[in-house]
């Protein structure tokens, strides 16, 4: 897990560089782009309660056995990493008593529920199953065009969705 923290800034710069070279003035898709559906999050909540709540808490608050999956600590821990990395972590190491035993589609539904619990917007499509399909999607605790105070940041280009 320590390597993930070291490479995050480099990954973001790499993604920004690729976007610039491709002639785009935007960042790649992020969790703010509605990457899961409400129905998928509902399925994920049921799967979470069955397979995850005993370690991570009924409200994703964390316990002595597992960290919180919602809130500032969770979003800070995963900030600026690929959503595919989260999917990989889930598939390889969860649930702790049966690692790798949940299907990729079940893990995708649980991840959709976690995104919903962290107040990321839903969309019209289900989150794809499997980490490879999520490698280009960035987990960002705030929109790329906002600072921590909520004001616009001049050096971050506007996201892919127009503001209304």
Strand order of the largest sheet: 1-2
* Mean pLDDT value: 83
Strand count, sense and barrel status of the largest sheet are: 2 strands, antiparallel
The CATH class label is Mainly Alpha
Computed over alpha carbons, the radius of gyration is 16 Å
Structural class estimated from helices and strands: mainly alpha
- CATH T-level fold name: Cytochrome Bc1 Complex, Chain D, domain 2
Going by CATH, the architecture would be Orthogonal Bundle
Helix-strand topology string: HHHHEHHE
Q: What's the CATH H-level homologous superfamily?
A: Cytochrome c-like domain
Give the N-to-C terminal Cα separation.
Answer: 38 Å
- Counting DSSP H or I runs of 4 or more residues, the number of helices is 6
The backbone outline, from C-alpha atoms, is: globular
Walkthrough of the structure:
By secondary structure, the protein is an all-alpha fold. It has one domain: Orthogonal Bundle (Cytochrome Bc1 Complex, Chain D, domain 2). It is 43% helix and 2% strand. It contains 6 helices and 2 strands. A two-stranded antiparallel ribbon has the order 1-2. The protein is globular, with a radius of gyration of 16 Å. The N and C termini lie far apart (38 Å).
